[in-house]
From TrEMBL:
<dbReference type="GO" id="GO:0008465">
    <property type="term" value="F:hydroxypyruvate reductase (NADH) activity"/>
</dbReference>
<keyword id="KW-0560">Oxidoreductase</keyword>
<protein>
    <recommendedName>
        <fullName>Glyoxylate reductase/hydroxypyruvate reductase</fullName>
    </recommendedName>
</protein>
<dbReference type="GO" id="GO:0030267">
    <property type="term" value="F:glyoxylate reductase (NADPH) activity"/>
</dbReference>
<dbReference type="Pfam" id="PF02826">
    <property type="entry name" value="2-Hacid_dh_C"/>
</dbReference>
<dbReference type="InterPro" id="IPR029753">
    <property type="entry name" value="D-isomer_DH_CS"/>
</dbReference>
<dbReference type="InterPro" id="IPR050223">
    <property type="entry name" value="D-isomer_2-hydroxyacid_DH"/>
</dbReference>
<dbReference type="InterPro" id="IPR036291">
    <property type="entry name" value="NAD(P)-bd_dom_sf"/>
</dbReference>
<dbReference type="Pfam" id="PF00389">
    <property type="entry name" value="2-Hacid_dh"/>
</dbReference>
<dbReference type="GO" id="GO:0051287">
    <property type="term" value="F:NAD binding"/>
</dbReference>
<dbReference type="InterPro" id="IPR006139">
    <property type="entry name" value="D-isomer_2_OHA_DH_cat_dom"/>
</dbReference>
<feature type="domain" description="D-isomer specific 2-hydroxyacid dehydrogenase catalytic">
    <location>
        <begin position="10"/>
        <end position="326"/>
    </location>
</feature>
<dbReference type="GO" id="GO:0005829">
    <property type="term" value="C:cytosol"/>
</dbReference>
<feature type="domain" description="D-isomer specific 2-hydroxyacid dehydrogenase NAD-binding">
    <location>
        <begin position="117"/>
        <end position="296"/>
    </location>
</feature>
<dbReference type="InterPro" id="IPR006140">
    <property type="entry name" value="D-isomer_DH_NAD-bd"/>
</dbReference>
<comment type="similarity">
    <text>Belongs to the D-isomer specific 2-hydroxyacid dehydrogenase family.</text>
</comment>
Amino acid sequence: MRAARWAMEVFVTRRIPAAGLRALSEAGGCTVRQWDSDEPVPRAELLAGVAGKQGLLCLLSDRIDKEVLDAAGSSLKVISTMSVGFDHLALHEIKKRGIRIGYTPDVLTDATAELSVALLLATCRRLPESVEEVKNGGWTTWKPLWMCGYGLSDSIVGIIGLGRIGQAVARRLKPFGVKKFLYAGSRPKPEIAAEFEAEFVPVTRLAEESDFIVVTCTLTPETEGVCNKDFFCRMKKNSVFINTSRGAVVNQEDLYNALVNGQIAAAGLDVTTPEPLPADHPLLSLKNCVILPHIGSATYATRNTMSVLAANNLLAGLKGEPMPSELLL
Ligand code: DGY
């Protein structure tokens, strides 16, 4: 008896690194349709593109909701997102339909932790502001009280979400002379926390005691808006807030008020709501707020690896095999 021919159709929602696309096209039996652009796929193209496909390779900027799943129809077997975050996926609807999900944890941990540390240092030592002063003639002489910021030595660092990225951030910050690590999250993780002698505390205490706060948690209904007015009011006046997880963890209006009113010293954000943040957004007018365009995982090597992992997750799911990284619901 001849083996049944393996023939699957997949839709890829964006131009991705060539290595990922190659993995799909070299698999044999996998027909790829792609929105071959650096810009997001228009909604109508997404709905049309996914129709009748068995696989979908998407990005964190694609909202995969009931409408998309309905447009795909019952043929859709696997969704593979080229991201560790999965808050853009309607998990309940996906689970109901028995669709498997692949994602890309681990491979972006180092790059994202590195960016978190870079953003923290840029924010607490006022690097963008200082660079601007050099360019605009504000640098007139060496001044004892000019462009001073806050250093990590002897500080207390609070990490919201001591997962893979949170741990990698703590590991990188420790050699800067951090005195104590605090962490908050859904549950204590004593084995993991032991490496940093980190103490599990309620998020309110973390806000009150930390000199630096780094948010690296997953966006869930529990973490949405957790950094709000009450949180910022509890923070020390000379403390620095960093978010490299998802914008929706933060109430941005409350953050703006905290920065303007001097409730906190500064903030560094790699993630915002919405993304991109409109160029006239009030947060962008503040010198004590450093905003990056969601580049946590943006190294060439990491993005290559993410694309290959996303492709391999998709292929394995389509073949009914174990995925290298499956999101188990
Ligand atoms: C992810 O993969 O979810 C990250 O936010 C990308 O940097």
